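To close the section, here is one more complete example, presented without commentary so you can practise reading it yourself. The ligand is xanthosine-5'-monophosphate.
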Amino acid sequence: DWVMQDHVAEAVARIRAQVGDQQVLLGLSGGVDSSVAAALIHKAIGEQLTCVFVDHGLLRLHEGDMVMAMFAEKLQVKVVRVNAGPLFLRELAGISEPEAKRKTIGRLFIDVFKAEAEKLKAQSAREIAFLAQGTIYPDVIESGASKNAKKAVTIKSHHNVGGLPEQLGLELLEPLRDLFKDEVRELGIALGLPPEMVYRHPFPGPGLGVRILGEIKPEYPDLLRRADAIFIEELRNGIDAASGKSWYELTSQAFAVFLPVKSVGVMGDGRTYDYVVALRAVQTSDFMTADWAELPYSLLKRVSSRIINEVRGINRVTYDVSSKPPATIEWE
Ligand code: XMP
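Output:
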């Protein structure tokens, strides 16, 4: 629409004015905010933008390839993909406590990003002057609120890349700072990003790292990725007759969780002794409180039988019927 096209033109002009002929670095995660920021900045300054995509090996099925297909191939954005999966797995070995895992993932992420940024700074013919981030208005409010909070109990420590610009000697570029999530999505659509990407459920920075309970053994992420992809595919395909919407649209967030416990099953005439996944689907308006979603039994049945039949190594599927509070949305 017109209003959005005006907004795009205005944002593009503002970015051009701020950046001039200097170079910009952006941490691309594949999430909505950084994706929209990348598309917008690319529209404004094209080749002057370089994105760094740190693949920590804890992403969803084919996610890394999809990010590259979208940005590097389709939009012709310069993207450096860093395949840090093996490093993350190595460093996470032996760590099972959720906060310790979160902190390890956060620290490694920053280390890897910084190393790549330093390399690009050294190589770049023109000086890299800016670090772009997909900060949106609620993030601005939230970080202000947490600074003012006297002594809030930390339930989960989130990824925080707040110190990066200073450490890298870069100025911040935050073109989405004044926008709410809905506006960011509309902007993404106006920029030509596909709706499946723009209307995706949120995904936590530590990724599957907080959806594999306890220690992350090398064989776990792949099992979880495959189970999760089946769940999401069936949610997208399952249409609620009353609303005409898919169950993916009717839920705010949905995913599979890997439980590193084994239970006994039977397959053909053999015994199995394999892992369990839990399915989590919630409805919420603000992610501060959430209800578990009353998914149709027929849908749960299809998901369960597909996972057990298609993912060798998982022989049991459960559904999480906990609301937030007292449970949280993610399990760690
Ligand atoms: P919880 O589990 O606290 O999650 O009920 C609330 C929302 O926050 C997301 N989440 C995160 N997002 N980095 C993020 O960017 C994180 O470390 C993180 N931990 C949780 C979670 O997926 C849900 O949408």
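Once you have examined the tokens, check your reading against these statements. The chain has two domains: 2-198, 211-319. Residues 211-319 form a domain with the GMP Synthetase; Chain A, domain 3 fold (CATH 3.30.300.10).
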